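G., the chain you wanted modeled:
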Amino acid sequence: MAGSLFERLTGANAACGLEEDDSIRNHLLRMFIARQGSVQSLPDYGLPDLNDLTLSRTDLINATCKGIKECITAYEPRLVNVEVTHSPLPDSTFSMGLHITAEALDEYGNTRPWHWDVRLEGDKLRGR
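Predicted structure as tokens:
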């Protein structure tokens, strides 16, 4: 596939010279900035609110991994067989490391391994 739908409609990936992996990562970052319920036509688009103070750290990690996996599976068709795992960060009380693995589909239906390490800091997600 040649970029996200938005990039194909606007010509953004051609104009910026984005590679497919960069396009996927940009789309995921935009998607993870959104919170579920913020897009009226797609109520489950984005991440769920992760500020539930009643959750233990383990429950929060599991809920975060599950939410990210569900979001990618539903709204990033260029990735299949998605797995999201916790990747502990040293000396990070308020950050969470995550490892996303999947298979990236090309325009011919072929797959190749794809992965991305991200750092969740509060409500911000940063690629590493």
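The chain has a mean pLDDT of 81.

Shout if anything looks off.
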